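Feature request, filed as a ticket because there's no other form

It would be nice if the structure record came with a short human-readable summary line next to the tokens. Right now we just get the raw output. Example of a typical job, pasted below so the devs can see what we mean:
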Amino acid sequence: MTEARHRATSRVALTNPAAWPDSGFGTQVRVLAARSLRTAFGDRRLVFFGLLQPIVLLLLFSQVFSGVSTLPGVAAYQGYVNFLVPATLVNIAMTTAMSSGAGLLAEIYSGFTGRLRCLPISLSAVLVARTIADSARLGVQLLVTVVASVALLGFRPTGGILGVTAALVLTLVVGWCLSWVFVAITTWLRKAETLQMASFVVMFPLMFSSSAYMPLDTMPGWLRVISAVNPLTYAIDAARALALGRPSGWSIPIALGIGAVAAVAGGWVAARTFRSSRGAVLP
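Raw output as currently delivered:
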């Protein structure tokens, strides 16, 4: 009886992060995030196509929708590409946030998160590290996209370097907040096919019912109502205002406020479901 109690006590101590002062929460996040970054940037082909994809999409949309550059809501931006690039940055953040869930699911499938449960670390550190690593990857994508847009597509950010930097920081924050939503979806669904379908159901309506590709005044009335409550609309309007030096109104605080609510809610759901599960893929 005493031996069994001793084994149980030892097991609790080993799985309690507080019992390991040399491996605090910050250290755990740093180590796990570094591992995720090494995985993400370790495959040069994956890095190449990951950076090429947003540029190809931007080139495609800028040519397909170039005819709308004469519309009143677009002409003031002196070219459709100036209207499109800030929106594309937010859409890249949305896509990268979706990949946060896919990356976490891959680690669950491979058994990596299951092995982590045998170590004295905080399971929340696993989730935080995943979102931080993906945000770092997003930062590289955004920077490359802006440079390519200026060099190849004639994007002219009239807000200057400070405005573009502020737009990139805003987009990074929004992307990090959105990643918690998709991480929460992953810990809840935990199946690749279901996650993919759910992610696209969330992503595409938000993207195409926002002010990303067309000004709201050109949309049907019912779609304008949806766009007015679409959180991506505020993030896109804020990024445009910062990058192009235009009045932002309430778009910046609203975008950050919605992002904060999404991050808190997603983080709470993700942490709760991740701790209560066994780390294995559910049937």
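Something like this underneath would help us a lot:
The chain is about 75% helix and 0% strand.
The CA atoms of residues 44 and 119 lie 31 Å apart.
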